[in-house]
Amino acid sequence: MTAVAEESMIQDAGARGARAFATRQLRAYRDDGPIAMGLGRPVRGHLPPLPGAVIALVVTGVLLVAGAGAGDTRTLFAPVAALLLTGPASGHPHNGRLDWLVPPIIRTIEYGYLAVLGFAQGVPAPLIFALIAVLAYHHYDTVYRTRQRLWPQDWVFRAGLGWEGRMLIVAFVGLSGFLPFAYAALAAYLGVLFGIESVTTWLRTGRGSGVIVDLEED
pTM to 2 decimals? Predict the structure, then answer.
């Protein structure tokens, strides 16, 4: 094997590794829960994620605008529409040129839905801000970790219910009129879960000594 061929093989391996890393990042940034991941298994990654995410954003926006009045139940069906449009593409490698837009679109859907629904249904503002702040911390922590190749374990996404699980719970409870309780309970549960898991993870990495460990190798 010539030096040129060997160098070419090394470059190809590096490129494949970079693509695999980017794919793993984007799928982590989606923050899918068990329901969305379950919808993606039968499709086996063949459905491109961007078109469905864009349509889900539009549909969610229309439902929120149309049903933003107090007592209007149309907004409660937005999570189902968003899930059906984005869930089947959860297993896609997200290697398209613009597929990096999918996680921000999903975040816009989730945060926007929780904010608009909460204010429209009379949820106290501190509860709305608390829940969104907990989620923002979790997503920021995920981004910061993955950039150092330190990956959240799979059980964190399952226990965190995923973006779709959180939206569905809020919508379901909203039908019974106990929406403030749902916001308070989710903020408390997720705050404890993500907070303890994050602190424990960073302590285990030995960050103070400059050592970073991939927990999936444990």
Answer: 0.83
